[in-house]
Amino acid sequence: MINVQICLFAYNLEESIASCIESVMENCGSYQYELFVMINGCTDQTYDIVSGIADTNSNLHPVLIEIGDKSNAWNTFIYQYYDGHSVAVFADGDLTFGNNAFKHIVDCHISQPHYNAITGFPYDQGRSSKQMQNRMQQNHDLAGGLYLLSPLFIWALTNSHVKLPVGLIGDDSMLGFLSATNICSGTDLPKQRIGVCVKAVFIYSHLSPLRWQDYKLYFRRRVRYSLRYFQQLSIVSDLKQQGISAMPAAAIHGTSASLHQVRWRSSNLIFDLISKWMIDRQKMRLHPESDNTSKSLS
């Protein structure tokens, strides 16, 4: 019998978490599953809503985490709640899912167990979604909205004591890199190590130009994309050169942002500059003595 553990990430999702949980439960087919909702750093009613649903669903487990950080929530699930043998599926709590999406991604693992990871597929409407689909099929990228990690690969991660850096943006990109390289083995083979399950569809709501809140969400999202760019550029470069031992405990410890890394001739420019300022400021807080030294020398 195949047992499935689903890890659902939730941060201030009181408006969407109930519909997301319902969508998960409706699309697991006949597989026996446990659903862990990693409620991290929420300041709204997300925990109360999930707890209320759990009262009548014994396979639903709300997990309250003080730190609002997705990578830390991933670490918490893997090292404290994963049972070591189930098929683990990860998903975002602000999505809904296509017909039998979780069944399909588990089926894909059963039929192709050699993959370290299997990615779900974004809904097929809209230009950006089409571009993402084409990129995923060509490059075998891992999508953070819905993905599966094989039990054997999770064992390899935990056996090597691998944790995602706290503060890392883009857990999917990092896990995709670790999957494709067999945890920094010296080879990079995404097509052989990451499967793409086109039937495991996840659906996200589109931003509306008529909502002011969506403009703010878009701006924050673009800044986070730039932060992810600098983090991946720095941390992955270190991992390629030094191996998995170079993985920092906190993302900021392994992140740098120099002016020559800024994407000057692109739509990312303003967001890259904001992200660089944020990274420099955070590093200054970590090492205030270096700033004082530079001031005294000047």
TrEMBL record:
<dbReference type="InterPro" id="IPR029044">
    <property type="entry name" value="Nucleotide-diphossugar_trans"/>
</dbReference>
<protein>
    <submittedName>
        <fullName>Glycosyltransferase family 2 protein</fullName>
    </submittedName>
</protein>
<feature type="domain" description="Glycosyltransferase 2-like">
    <location>
        <begin position="6"/>
        <end position="134"/>
    </location>
</feature>
<dbReference type="InterPro" id="IPR001173">
    <property type="entry name" value="Glyco_trans_2-like"/>
</dbReference>
<dbReference type="Pfam" id="PF00535">
    <property type="entry name" value="Glycos_transf_2"/>
</dbReference>
